[in-house]
Amino acid sequence: MSFPSLLQLVHFLLFISTFHSALGIQCYRCLPKAVPNTGNQTNSLEPCSKFDGSSPFVIDCPLSTFCMKRNFTLEFPDGRNAIVTERGCAQQSFSYRVLKRGQWQTVNDVNETIYQDGCILEHQGTKPPTQYCYCSSRLCNAATPVQLSSNLLVYLIFPLVYYVL
Questions:
Q1: Which residue has the higher pLDDT, 14 or 44?
Q2: Which pLDDT tens digit goes with each residue over 61-92?
Q3: Which residues span the membrane (predicted)?
C-alpha cells in the first residue's frame, strides 16, 4: 500500500476547491416582509421576523459563493424606527450574451472576488447606516444582529481603560 505524494494531495485539494465553488452555496433566505407564494416558487419567501433556522428558510445559491445578511433601519412617519433584517444569496453573478455558431447565448459568470467574509456599514446621507454581512460557508448567515446595551459596553471598555492607564 502506497501513500499519495504531496503533489497528488495538492492536486486533489485544488480539484475539491474548484468543485465547491462551481456548485454554489446554501444560505438562509428571508425577507423583511412576507411575500405570498405565487405557485411557481420552489422556496416560500418567509419573513425574517419568523426566522428560526429551519429548512423552509434554506435556499440553494448556484450563482453565489457567499451568503448575505443585511440589517437596516426602517423609519416610520410617526418617528418610530425598526431594525429590519434580510438574508439571502450574495449578488455575485452577471449575465451577458455571446454569439456562438450564429446563435446568441446568455452566459452567467460569478465574480468570486467581489466580497470578503465580514461586515461593512454603508452610510447614505442622514439616514442610519445599513450593515451588510457576507460569509462563505454553508448556512453562515443565521446570526442575529448584535445589540450592545450600555451596561455591557461599560463592562467591555472598563478593563481596557484600566490596563492602558
A1: 44
A2: 999 999 999 999 988 899 899 999 999 999 99
A3: none
Q: What is the pTM of this model?
A: 0.65
Q: What is the DSSP secondary structure assignment for residue 112, as one 8-state letter?
A: T
Residue 79 cell numbers, joined? 418617528
d(CA 70, CA 11): 37
The torsion angles phi and psi of 142, rounded to 5 degrees, stand at -90, -20
Q: What angle do CA 143, 147, 152 make, to 5 degrees?
A: 125
Residue 139: left (phi > 0), alpha (psi -120 to 50), or beta? left
Q: CA angle 140-120-51, nearest 5°? A: 40
User: 105-127 burial string, b = 16+ CB within 10 Å, else e?
Assistant: eeeeebeeeebeeeeeeeeeeee
